[in-house]
Design brief:
This protein is of the alpha+beta class. It has one domain (11-108). It has helices at 27-33, 38-46, 98-108; strands at 2-3, 15-16, 50-52, 55-56, 61-66, 73-80, 87-95. The longest helix has 11 residues, at 98-108.
Length: 116
């Protein structure tokens, strides 16, 4: 595994690159199988995403942030889309683990009061 080294600048991305709904091997189907609704990706990116360090092999950036209801922190992994360099491609995601929550708290200087 490798670690993410350079920070990802979310402001350079103009679109979220999802595979078609009927692509069973695509990123949308993968995220849905994991219980990660696509709406949560948009919510995390628009709320308070914080880039964290994670050992990964298939992503450029890992972010932790709350959903819009602010009752769950999510960890999301992204890559730059192979289709266009200004598209962000979700790779996978999960409910944030305690260590990831601590990184978010440290970066935002806030205490997470949602479910743990």
């Amino acid at each position: 595994m490798t670690s993410i080294e350079a920070p990802v600048d979310l402001s350079k991305f103009e679109w979220i690159d999802w595979d078609p709904e009927d692509d069973e091997k695509g990123n949308l189907a993968h995220c849905r199988r994991l219980g990660l609704p696509e709406q949560v990706v948009y919510e995390v990116l628009s709320e308070e995403p914080v880039e964290i360090e994670l050992p990964v092999e298939t992503a450029e950036g890992a972010f932790v942030g709350p959903n819009r209801a602010r009752n769950q922190l999510w960890t999301l992994l992204f890559d730059t889309s192979y289709k266009r360099g200004d598209w962000l491609r979700p790779i996978t995601g999960w409910r944030a683990k305690p260590a990831e929550i601590r990184e978010w708290e440290q970066a935002t200087s806030k205490r997470w009061k949602g479910r743990r």
